[in-house]
Specification:
A hairpin with a 2-residue loop joins strand 3 and strand 4. The chain has a five-stranded antiparallel β-sheet. The protein has 204 residues and is α+β, with helices and mostly antiparallel strands. The chain is built from seven helices and five strands; from the N terminus they run H-H-H-H-H-H-E-E-E-E-E-H.
Length: 204
Amino acid sequence: MFQRFVSTVIVATAAFVGGQAQAQVAPDALIKQVSGEVIDIVKSDKAMQGGDIAKVQALVDAKVMPHVNFQRMTSAAVGRAWRTATPEQQKRLQDEFKTLLIRTYAGALSQVKESTTVNIKPLRAAPEDTEVVVRTEIRGKSDPAQLDYRMEKAPAGWKIYDVNVLGIWLVDQYRNSFAQEINTGGIDGLITRLADKNKAASKG
């Protein structure tokens, strides 16, 4: 169940991110515009669907990271311990967390098929809102997956900082597991754990 949840999260994330400057684009329009681009890339690349790490890395770096507030996502997942972490620890946490998500993409992107489509639901927000939730639905051969995205208005455009799948926010999901690691071994223990998981995945 958790593997299916993570796969759905990552497929969903791939559906709404892209590499163009979107400073003047509304959040729901941004998601609608770039989802087609990313889905088309995956559909046309058999190696990526098969889990080619190098190609997934390139896709994530080019299309995903410019539109995600990754520091906010990482700090929220780490929780209160983030404030006591040194700048070096914070950097290492972001690096390892990024690698973790990228490697999850390798398996999850194979879930994108020719029949995959994204339905954007009407945005419930006022024009002056600086934080919104964009709701979408991923349709494919399996049952539709309801997906919500928390987005913030930044100087460079709208940024994604959390994803909700099946009623569970991604940041909350990681915060629970990260808290257990921090309670056991502190920030360094969490960094080591993430690094070990990433090294093991790279050898798999």
